[in-house]
Design goal:
The complex is a heterodimer. Helix content of chain A is 76%, strand content 2%. By secondary structure, chain A is mostly helical. Chain A has a two-stranded antiparallel sheet with strand order 1-2. By secondary structure, chain B is of the alpha/beta class. Chain B folds into 2 domains: 178 residues, 3-Layer(aba) Sandwich (D-Maltodextrin-Binding Protein, domain 2), CATH 3.40.190.10; 140 residues, D-Maltodextrin-Binding Protein, domain 2 (3-Layer(aba) Sandwich). In chain B, strand 5 and strand 6 form a beta hairpin. In chain B, helix 9 packs parallel to helix 17 and helix 10 packs across helix 11. The termini of chain B are far apart. The chains are: A mainly alpha, B alpha/beta. At the A-B interface, helix 4 and helix 13 of A face helix 5, strand 9 and helix 17 of B.
């Protein structure tokens, strides 16, 4: 009895102190609430990144890794023209995808935010309908649309506008851009919609009352106020599409390959994981740089028009 | 508590904190339990071995005896070529049986991923065509590391109506004919793609090229790139494209020919003047296999080696089969229609037999670079 008493009172005091600390410190409470997510992020994101980073400094020797520090993979990345060339091609293609997607998504989001008065939710759900099927299925759907005997070609043929099917529709960078722009549409529409929806309607009325025409109202009021949504949409589309490899490998043909395909083949057929890791790291860095430039640019742009 | 009750309480805010927590806990417990239920229903498939193979060789007709004995097919996984299969297995994918071709067996043996097979446990082993039993590299220290079950060719499958000038001039060169720009296809593989280019440029031994021959092969692949519609990964891609006329010619295996022919499409399978490639594929027992499943593994092998499977493979796919007796069951007319002018012995001595490729990593890198436009 006498020996357990001090221990239990000690445990009690610890418990008490911890509880007080928890109640006193707001940030500690915040972290403890975050901890499951934080832990998952650490295990699922930070750890693999660390592994990837470490791997990129090793060397592949036929079937085995040489585990001594080396920058050979990074030298390869810069010395062999293939990687940089494909990386910049991917960035060009993804930028195009982003521009096309945002340009197409904006009117749709605008329509739902300003013109639809009833059942907005139904419209929003309708936009997500294509996402109820698998991504692969949507890519194949585009293959059917653009294919040699596909919907477009056979449609034009039956109208008598074509005698031979158009071959340039599929298996090139353009088909990759079309497919990606469609596949990522919802990721652009939703953030733009949210930012348009948030705009205080009285501001628009004020602009009109002060004599701005509808176009200038859009340029000087609606567009700047919806820019956060446009920026979010651009990032949501640009970042994942740079690394996409499924779409190019299905609809890209020999000329439509992207950096994702190179990385995939490094981890697959080419059996060179360290080089694949180095290419991944470099492409992540490049994307980060591009995104920073983009954010800096839009920040300046917003300051200018504000 | 009923569903409606919970919803109503939630909506009206009448649910007490304790009640809410209780419901949340119940939900959590249910979520945790859910995978257990599905795991139990999958128990049956866990008893089966996993077979890693090419598309087309997984059909139940090719292992009917196994299905009859165990009620269903084993677990099947498909690869597009052995490099992909190898990469997946290196990355930790555990399989019991794989179905590579002979040229991969020595490399896989070096990598330590295959084990010898006890042919005494295979009732159909004595019926296997003798010349297939000891292809160099597949028998190591007197132990059988490979069970030959399938053989055939890699050649050009083309539309004689679209390219009539090649009917009496069959050559791999059709795949480099600028006239058919954008209507040609090659296998996205070393053995059936890059090696074709090596044969085309006249490499003395395509499977062990000199540096000069490598450079020539690279140049040929580069020259071909703008003519290629796509590099194919599964034969169904080229079958559809050849049927629609999207493609005029493509490298293919016998099955593409048999399938399109049976659909009444005007196709021809070349006997190129440079020589078609011939191959033998079959089974390897993986080091990673589950010993508890060994009986089923051998049953699967034996089923695949049977006469019934052989007849199906010959008639449906136009491939050769390892079982010599299977050929007796197919009428000579049918064999002729499928293009079997030779027997296995002759086939192995004619044409270009696919061997292990020297310096594979360099070939792969070269192919990747060419495909990227360099």
């Amino acid at each position: 009895m006498t020996s357990t008493n001090p221990i239990s009172s000690f445990a009690f005091s610890i418990h008490f102190k911890l509880r007080r600390l928890l109640l006193k410190s707001e940030s500690l409470r915040g972290y403890s609430l975050l901890s499951p997510t934080l832990l998952a992020m650490l295990l699922g994101l930070a750890m693999p990144m660390l592994v990837l980073f470490t791997l990129s400094f090793w060397i592949q020797e036929y079937l085995d890794f040489i585990r001594t520090f080396s920058i050979k993979n990074y030298l390869d990345f810069f010395q062999k023209p293939i990687y940089i060339k494909i990386l910049f091609k991917s960035i060009r293609m993804s930028s195009l995808v982003t521009v096309v997607t945002v340009l197409l998504a904006y009117p749709m989001a605008y329509y739902i935010a300003f013109r639809v008065k009833r059942n907005k939710l139904v419209w929003l759900i309708l936009i997500t309908v294509p996402f109820w099927t698998s991504y692969l299925l949507r890519v194949f759907a585009w293959k059917i649309m653009l294919g040699y005997n596909g919907v477009i070609n056979s449609g034009l043929k039956s109208l008598g506008l074509l005698s031979e099917p158009l071959e340039f529709l599929l298996y090139n960078p353009t088909s990759v851009v079309i497919t990606l722009a469609h596949a990522w549409a919802a990721f652009a529409i939703l953030p733009i919609y949210v930012s348009l929806e948030k705009i205080d309607r009285s501001l628009l009325e004020a602009a009109r009352d002060l004599g701005e025409n509808p176009f200038m109202t859009f340029v000087r009021v609606t567009l700047p106020l919806s820019l956060p949504g446009v920026i979010a949409a651009s990032l949501l589309v640009f970042i994942p599409t740079v690394g996409d490899y499924v779409t190019p490998s299905l609809v890209g043909g020999p000329s439509g390959i992207m950096i994702g395909n190179i990385i995939q083949s490094m981890f697959g057929k080419a059996q060179n994981w360290p080089l694949g890791a180095a290419i991944s790291v470099m492409s992540m860095l490049t994307v980060t740089l591009m995104v920073s430039l983009f954010l800096w640019g839009t920040h300046n742009f917003r300051r200018q028009i504000a | 508590m009923k569903k409606e009750e919970i919803t109503e309480q939630l909506a009206t805010g009448r649910m007490s904190r304790r009640q809410f927590n209780k419901n949340l806990m119940a939900l959590g417990a249910t979520m945790v339990m859910m995978p257990m239920g599905s795991r139990m229903t999958q128990a049956a498939s866990e008893d089966h071995p996993t077979v890693f193979t090419w598309e087309g060789w997984e059909v139940p007709e090719l292992h009917a005896a196994y299905v009859k004995k165990y009620g269903s097919s084993p677990n099947i996984s498909i690869f597009a070529d052995e490099e992909e299969a190898f990469a997946k297995m290196r990355a930790g994918f555990r399989v019991d049986l794989t179905q590579p071709c002979t040229y991969k067996v020595p490399i896989w043996y070096d990598a330590g991923i295959i084990l010898p097979i006890d042919t005494n446990r295979l009732s159909n082993w004595p019926d296997i065509i003798p010349s297939l039993k000891n292809i160099p590299g597949t028998v190591i220290d007197g132990k059988q590391y490979f069970i030959p079950t399938d053989w055939g060719q890699t050649s050009v499958l083309y539309r004689p109506d679209l390219a009539p000038e090649y009917v009496n001039n069959e050559t791999w060169g059709i795949l480099w004919d600028p006239k058919y720009k954008g209507r040609l296809s090659m296998a996205d593989s070393l053995i059936d793609g890059v090696m074709v280019a090596a044969i085309y440029v006249g490499a003395k031994n395509p499977f062990n090229m000199t540096d000069a021959e490598m450079a020539k092969t690279r140049a040929a692949l580069k020259e071909q790139l703008p003519l290629i519609r796509f590099y194919w990964g599964s034969s169904s891609e080229i079958e559809q494209a050849l049927a629609s006329g999207e493609l005029v010619a493509a490298t293919a295996w016998n099955d593409g020919y048999a399938k399109l022919k049976s659909e009444g499409i005007n196709v021809k399978y070349m006997n190129p003047k440079e020589g078609a490639m011939t191959w033998v594929c079959g089974f390897c027992l993986m080091t990673d296999h589950n010993p508890a499943k060994l009986d089923r593994i051998y049953d699967y092998l034996d089923a695949y080696m049977s006469v019934e499977s052989g007849v199906y493979e010959i008639v449906e796919y136009g491939y050769g089969h390892g079982n010599a007796k299977a050929f007796d069951q197919v009428s000579p007319e049918k064999l002729k229609e499928l293009g079997f002018s030779t027997n296995a012995e002759e086939m192995l001595s004619s044409g270009i037999f696919q061997e292990p490729m020297a310096n594979e990593p360099a070939l792969q890198t070269m192919f990747e670079e060419v495909k990227a436009g360099l």
